[in-house]
Amino acid sequence: MVRLLAVSGSLRQASSNSILLRAAERLCPEGISITHYEGVGELPHFNPDLLEDPPETIMALRSIIGQADGLLFSCPEYARGIPGAFKNMLDWLVSSEEFPGKPVALFNASPRASHAQAALRLVLDTMSARIIEEASITVNLLSSQLSAEGIITDPVMGPLMGTALDAFKRHLDNQNLLGC
Ligand SMILES: Cc1cc2nc3c(=O)[nH]c(=O)nc-3n(C[C@H](O)[C@H](O)[C@H](O)COP(=O)(O)O)c2cc1C
């Protein structure tokens, strides 16, 4: 069983990115478990002064990241960039032991969000994450109002997501076989 941790870059109640991650959970092919990290909006502002004795919420974040075999991110674009709350979470993970080398699949709910996606890739690369291209997908949920059920039963989005999750599992299984 591979354990994925899903994190949405949007704090919005009806977020399309969060719905996309919920759809991934509902679709969840055999051999994958997906849990959601819901604490992005609760984290304190990043301050390097606090790194020596990080707040409890940050220790909990690091622990849950450490327990995941792979991360599933879905992040919107705000003002051509990464939303502040999500970047704040990443800043807390820069100097962590748990994050570097972590496999990441990037889900994206908007084909328009190209600046944020590019910025996110640069940040993740800088943080030594491993972006798994075959598990990274863009779907178009802009103004679609689709529910998680609507996404997984969509004739294009459902199979695209299934293929991406299968590819992520295959990658993680191979990685475990190689012992890295
Ligand atoms: C303050 C603000 C700034 C935004 N800036 C951009 C932008 O630069 N480019 C873009 O494609 N969409 C932009 N959007 C649209 C959001 O990315 C879009 O509404 C997206 O669906 C939000 O993600 P969510 O549904 O997961 O909350 C912006 C939205 C807001 C509220």
Automatic annotation (TrEMBL):
One Gene Ontology MF term: FMN binding
Keywords associated with the record: Flavoprotein, FMN
NADPH-dependent FMN reductase-like domain span: 3-137
Cofactors required: FMN
A single cellular component GO annotation: cytosol
Highest taxon, organism lineage: Bacteria
UniProt keyword Lipid metabolism present: no
Cited InterPro entries: Flavoprotein-like_sf, FMN_Rdtase-like_dom, NAD(P)H-dep_reductase
Name recorded for this polypeptide: NADPH-dependent FMN reductase
Organism in which the protein naturally occurs: Pseudomonas palleroniana
